Amino acid sequence: MVADRRLGLHATLPDRYAHYEVLTSTIDHRGRLAALVADPAQGFTPIPHFSGLRPPPRYDATAVICDEAEISEIPLTDLDLWFTHIDTLADGIVLAAARCEPVGIDREHYWEPVPEGRLHLTDNVRVIDGNGQTCSAFYAGDGIEQLMTDAQGNIWISYFDESNYWFPNPDGTRSYGFMIGLARWDSDGGPPWMAPSHTPDVVWCDCYALNVGRDLVHACPYTDFPLIEIDADGVRNITPNSITRGHGLAVSGTELGFLDQRRAGGGFRWEIRRARQQAGAITKTGRERLLLPDDRHPTGWARGKIGRDGTLWLYENGDPRRWYRYEL
């Protein structure tokens, strides 16, 4: 039997930003709502089959951080990328653009080392302080699924199935690689820690579910969905997992919650598959059907899917201004 579980309304972008376009939003490691908003009168254009607007090549925006009634703003001028991800970092923010194909390289050359001077790689991650000044910018690869920072100031990035990255070689060339899965950067954009090189037997086609907790990070990569546990020193444990379709993840000790969603009855159904990690395996223990705070069923896909320890934050597709909370 599936039990109903009502989500809590966690945070709402204040009404003063109602006439702004929300390019992206998130819930940070302190539970604060962070959003990148911009005036659409600058020349934003509709995108077919997409609920948001595309910014012009150059635009101004504001990073908004809401800590209950306390609201802070970081003005950003002359942005030159379509930033699709945001999180907080120290007293500032970090932004990322999901797509950044290299310019000037034909695909027939992707399978051979390419001199650095011939590659025009985009610095698609930008670290910005509380005054709006760029502290660092670096290339993080194409195909970013999620960006999350942690309490220690690390930047975690997961990737979807079209991801690729140009790896530097000692001779000054770079080589093309794909299925990046999951990587961790410091705030200066130094050489990243990448999960695939530390988990040679795991397929990282798509990092479906990511949970960046206070002390541990958990990830469930497609296609086999193992639960991978990572600490400051690297991969601690890999547990086989029979629960697939995990689009989000909550973790509290040995208790797990996997977000599942699908179309149902002309609408959408969000569910949590409850499970327990024990004796080197993951055992399903139950299911919960998620309802919104007014007891209505969702009218779109669950987006955001920010997992931090035992909490998972979600919003309805097309409404990144309003975030809901699930807790194990």
Can you give me a brief rundown of this structure?
The protein is mostly beta strands and 328 residues long. It is built from 1 helix and 29 strands.
Give the helix proportion (percent range): under 10%
Strand elements, count: 29
CATH homologous superfamily caption: TolB, C-terminal domain
CATH architecture: 6 Propeller
The first-to-last residue Cα distance is 18 Å
Strand content: over 45%
Oligomer: single chain
Shape: globular
Count of runs of 4 or more consecutive helical residues: 1
What's the SSE pattern?
EEEEEEEEEEEEEEEEEEHEEEEEEEEEEE
Mean pLDDT: 95
- What structural class do helix, strand and pairing data support? mainly beta
Number of domains: 1
Largest sheet: 6 strands, antiparallel
Poorly predicted regions are none
Task: Characterize the structure shown.
By secondary structure, the chain is mostly beta strands. The protein has one domain: Neuraminidase (6 Propeller). It has one helix and 29 strands. Strand 21 and strand 22 form a beta hairpin. The longest helix is centred in the middle third of the chain and has 4 residues. It is globular.
